[in-house]
Amino acid sequence: MFSIEQWALLAYGINLLLVLSILFFMLYQRRSPQSLTTWGLTLFLLPFFGVLLYLVLGSRKLLYKKNKPNILLHPLESPPSNPSFHAPLPSAITQLLYANQIDSVTYHNTIAFIAEPEEAYQQLLKAIHSAKTAIYIETYVFELDETGHAILNALTEKAKQGVEVRILFDAVGTLNLYLNARSLAEFKRAGGRYGFFQPLFKGFLSRQMNLRNHRKIFIFDGQITFTGGMNLSQDYMGQTSSSERPFWIDTLFKIKGASVNHHQTIFMEDWFYTSQERLTPIAQDSSHQIDHNHATSITTIPSGPDINSDALFESFLLSIHAAQKNLIIASPYFIPDSAIMNALMMALKRGVNVCLITNQTSDHLIFDLGSASFIRQLLEAGGNVYCFPSRVMHAKLMIIDQQAAFFGSANLDYRSLFLNYEISHFVSDSQLIKTLMEWVEIKIQEAETYQPSQHKVHRFFENLTRVFAPLL
Description:
The chain has 472 residues and is of the alpha/beta class.
């Protein structure tokens, strides 16, 4: 019979063995020094619980290639002779992505920028009502509030009409629906199909629960796609807002043209992984060809465990280093890794005007603490930071020298850059960027200057949370 001291020594030995095994495994993966330090502290300071945290949250994309095959995006068009398509930054981004096995530039597209929640809601409902053959929805959040019910009812009606309707939810983002899917019974009876990406119980057993699908892709008849930061709930869009629940600040983009085919590929791969149903791509309608004289090039950049490398992170890093005059970033969660933060500090030293639009307080306290230390550092180095006192800012944008831009679902944080399944886009269309700049200027006028907390205790917890930033 063991004594208490012997049991304690045995537990200590087991925990030490587990910790050393995890650290050796992380070294084998060539994890970053910051990640190794963070997990080392967590594992040693939280016996057994730290091991459990690693099993749930320590996932990294390299482990899961065997579970979800890489998405392959193939070239669809030949480059035009227009010199704007061959400017230094677009050319460098194209080369970088090509080296990462992403060949996803399309040259003949149109993009409509939608910033008003009411317009986004009306356009989405119009697209649903107009669909003739297929509707594919992929979203992180889908709440059955007033907005969600209206969208679900419209999708149910289309399914009754024989339209192929597929909805892919993330099991964490739509947790209420995942735990209680009875609200989807009528939709299913009507002929619609739905799936939950990375179900929690299965994900926990396979250590994939931490890898969430954050992509927003809404495709109609293979001809139109909506994408950006907006999920499907009253927070993001609707008929009207209320003083109790004002709309979040967010963006949506309506795309027509060859880029829709790449969005179809991404959705169909995600759907097959979840449901094992292989969908047939819908060809572009030749009667709706894009005017080549007014076409926009789009580089579609999926990121996550189903992509060969950290191509989106590398694209952001390259663009920050390439900035010469100004760099505008909109991100609700600003928790950059050391390489991104160092690049921003260098940009400020080079005289680049760096502007961040984010939240004073967001919908997640722990993320606010995680962001605060980085925002304070940016401010102290001469950056400009704007936030909104009474609304959540959820848009994701990066505009470089008013000549190129990124938009999509990815935040500038560890989770979006290294863990989640995301979709982003790179564009260099002058008219679109002019429109984005007008939106940015309006938002800056509506915003307030970020005010870091002056309390020493708060600052201590900011810096403490920063140590654990890779876990967020």
